[in-house]
Design a protein that fits this description.
heterodimer, A: about 325 residues, ABC transporter involved in vitamin B12 uptake, BtuC, two-stranded antiparallel sheet, globular, disordered N terminus, B: about 375 residues, alpha/beta, Rossmann fold, six-stranded parallel β-sheet, SBP_2_dom (chain B), sugar transport (chain B), ABC-type sugar transport system, periplasmic component (chain B), transport (chain B)
Chain lengths: ~325, ~375
């Protein structure tokens, strides 16, 4: 019963019973609000439309991939390969478009397919061969990056398709940049799948107590593989936004992106031990990182100090928000 | 019910952050100078001779000092010398072109290359690479240090093993010329800085503001570039105010530049320390709807396409990596003959503007100009003018 209680349709990380409990459960939102208030008071440029859209665009990749990573981590797994998958997917999309007469749809589908395939390999090796996902994805991190470097002899590949630029990078809808719209669509879709479908229930059950989940008839292997495929697909999708804005794919893109994604998800209250977490929390975690990156530059803080401050805020936010 | 209310409130708060801009007008930074009207002349941007000095204050020597007579060439061939090359990375065009210049020259002089290593910017790897190359006992090693301090001891082992040592760009710290190493061959980084500054200056109105996006790590090559940009402005445009922002993560520069420009809407143009950060910044600024003239250092395909298309990049101070490789190999041959090579041999900086982009690309890369650049030129119509 306990495991069921902690796995069902939960948006926030803990039951809210007392004031300190409330504080911990909502800490990520309080921290985000506090940062927004602080930077709004400290810099006249923070709360401008242009700047808020800057933050929205700058957090697109981390936010979109964090949605997928939430599934993986709630499953008590981890995916370190997303930065490399991001680079390889972007490269694939650019190369496919060069070969198929600039047909953007095929390029975009190829990018997502690369992510899905690597996600499947990550999940399959993890559950069928019993290799910890930390090691499997550390391996695919190197493999995907190596392939991205080899297929173009380390050179960037230029993209020249205006429709691709419009759809994934440049345009805006009702004044909102398309990258921000993509983020919102993925967050809403991820929210529905994780919190409103039986698949989501299975993800929580598998991460919370895999044995109990198996006894109740859940195919935990399939659930884990599907979660890896979701994060892979989203890494592929996120790479489309980036390559559309940059007008090129580079094999050295997004090295270390996986750490920002994992930090965002953990900041958002998703438990590294599985069974607990929310999509909205992960988005808030991503925005905390984005707001910090943005606000510290607006204040003119030197880049070395920025790293220290970001590190302190991340540790403080996770430890204060941690469930006892 | 209580929970769903909290969900709604939290979603609304986050959406509000993402969407807050809908109703308020955007603030856009833009150049107050009409960039369309400006035509840059590469010849007038090119510095007169070599501007900078060596890392230890050495006066620059010209590549002419390295030329060999026919008799000396014959002596080198008869010596049946061997060489090894320890690079910091092989992932960039610069490395491939430098290596090709070295290799072609060694081939013509009958010097056999017995090993080429790629340290992938990893100090430990480069130390291991150097130790491995020493065991092959080449007569000379040409190398660029990943880190001039951390690798110094490994380079001392090279000279202790009786192997001649030629540095690319900068010597390792604490090594003595000519006992420990025989020459440094480098581009004129200050000269490149001068080209970028002089070109950027054309876009900065009187009493305007120039922004510098700098690598915030103490690195000799980039320090030299930024130093000259600042000095050039203080000597020639004292009316211009300089504002700076630094980055340490070389793959995440775009957001930093976009945020810097947001916080400093008075910036009229940017100098960005090399081409990859510059192109990351171009992407971030384009997506933020901000247009600013940018100058940078090092010619690559991406910045060339942007320049050809009348985009953000207005001028580039370029190195000539192939010629640098040729000079490295000639310095090594001189050292092998026992001749004293100048401590610091510098190659002049090359100013690349839309006017000379196509021929500069061809001569620097030694290949045909890629179709993307030609297409961009044809569309914009600014190349060759």
């Amino acid at each position: 019963m306990n495991s069921k209680k902690s796995t069902k349709f939960r948006l926030f990380p803990s039951g809210v019973k007392s004031a300190p409990d409330f504080f911990r459960g909502y800490f990520v939102y309080l921290a985000l609000t506090a940062l927004i208030i602080f930077f709004s008071l400290a810099s006249p440029y923070f709360l401008t439309a242009q700047n808020l859209f800057n933050i929205g665009r700058q957090t697109t990749a981390v936010s979109i991939i964090a949605v997928g990573m939430t599934f993986v981590i709630i499953n008590a797994q981890i995916d370190l390969s997303v930065g490399s998958v991001f680079a390889l997917s972007g490269m694939t999309s650019a190369l496919v478009m060069q070969y198929v007469n600039n047909f953007w749809l095929l390029g975009a589908l190829a990018a997502i397919a690369v992510g899905v395939v690597i996600g499947f390999i990550n999940g399959w090796v993890t559950v069928k061969l019993g290799v910890p996902s930390f090691l499997v994805t550390l391996g695919t991190l190197g493999i995907a990056r190596g392939i991205a470097l080899i297929i173009t002899d380390t050179k960037p590949v230029l993209i020249s398709n205006p429709a691709y630029f419009q759809l994934f990078g440049d345009s805006s809808f009702l004044g909102i940049p398309i990258a921000v719209i993509w983020t919102l669509v993925i967050v809403i879709a991820g929210f529905i799948v994780l919190h409103k479908t039986t698949f989501g229930l299975r993800v929580f059950a598998t991460g919370g107590n895999p044995q109990a989940a198996r006894f109740t008839g859940i195919n935990t292997h399939r659930t884990i593989i599907a979660s890896f495929m979701i994060v892979g697909a989203l890494a592929g999708l996120a790479s489309l936004q980036f390559t559309a804005i940059a007008r090129a794919a580079r094999p050295d893109l997004a090295a270390g992106l996986e750490l920002d994604v994992i930090a965002a998800v953990i900041l958002g209250g998703v438990s590294l031990f599985g069974g607990r977490g929310t999509i909205v929390g992960a988005l808030a975690g991503s925005l905390i990182i984005g707001v910090m990156n943005n606000g510290l530059v607006l204040l003119g803080v030197s880049s070395s100090f920025q790293e220290i401050i970001k590190g302190i805020i991340i540790i403080a936010a996770v430890s204060l928000g941690k469930k006892k | 019910m209580k929970r769903s209310k909290s969900i709604a409130v939290s979603l609304a708060a986050i959406s509000a952050l993402l969407l807050a801009g809908c109703s308020s007008p955007g603030t856009e930074a833009s150049s107050s100078t009409d960039s369309k009207a400006i035509v840059l002349d590469a010849a007038s941007l090119t510095p007169n001779g070599i501007i900078g000095k060596g890392k230890n204050g050495e006066e620059p020597a010209s590549v002419d000092a390295l030329q060999l007579t026919d008799e000396e060439k014959a002596k080198v061939k008869a010596g049946k010398f061997t060489a090894a090359i320890a690079m910091q990375t092989m992932d960039i065009d610069w490395s491939r072109l430098t290596l090709k210049g070295i290799q072609d020259t060694f081939d013509s002089l009958g010097i056999k290359v017995v090993g080429v290593t790629d340290a992938k910017f990893d100090v430990q790897q480069q130390i291991a690479d150097l130790e491995n190359l020493i065991t092959k006992k080449p007569d000379v090693i040409i190398s660029i240090p990943v880190d001039d301090v951390a690798t110094a001891e490994a380079y001392k082992k090279v000279s202790a093993a009786g192997i001649k040592l030629i540095f690319i760009h900068m010597p390792a710290s604490g090594l003595k010329y000519p006992a420990d190493y025989q020459a440094v061959v480098a581009p004129d980084n200050q000269g490149n800085g001068e080209i970028a500054a002089a070109a950027l200056s054309k876009y900065i109105p009187e009493n305007g503001v120039a922004g510098i996006v700098d690598f915030a790590v103490d690195f000799y090559t980039t320090n030299q570039r930024t130093l000259r940009v600042k000095n050039w402005f203080s000597e020639n445009r004292p009316d211009v105010k300089i504002k700076e922002v630094g980055f340490t993560d070389t793959t995440a520069v775009g957001p930093i530049t976009a945020n810097f420009v947001t916080a400093n809407p008075d910036v009229n143009g940017l100098f960005i320390i090399w081409d990859s950060p510059a192109m990351q910044s171009v992407a971030a600024l384009r997506s933020a709807g901000v247009t600013l003239p940018i100058t940078t250092i090092d010619l690559g395909t991406e910045d060339a396409v942007d320049m050809a298309g009348d985009g953000y990049i207005k001028a580039v101070g370029a190195q000539r990596p192939y010629d640098q490789g040729v000079a490295e190999a000639l310095a090594a041959a001189n050292a092998l003959l026992g001749k004293k090579v100048p401590a610091w041999v510098a190659l002049p900086a090359v100013a690349v503007t839309p006017g000379n982009l196509l021929e500069s690309y061809k001569s620097i890369f030694g290949t045909e100009v890629p179709k993307e650049i030609v297409d961009a030129c044809n569309t914009s119509g600014i190349c060759g003018k």
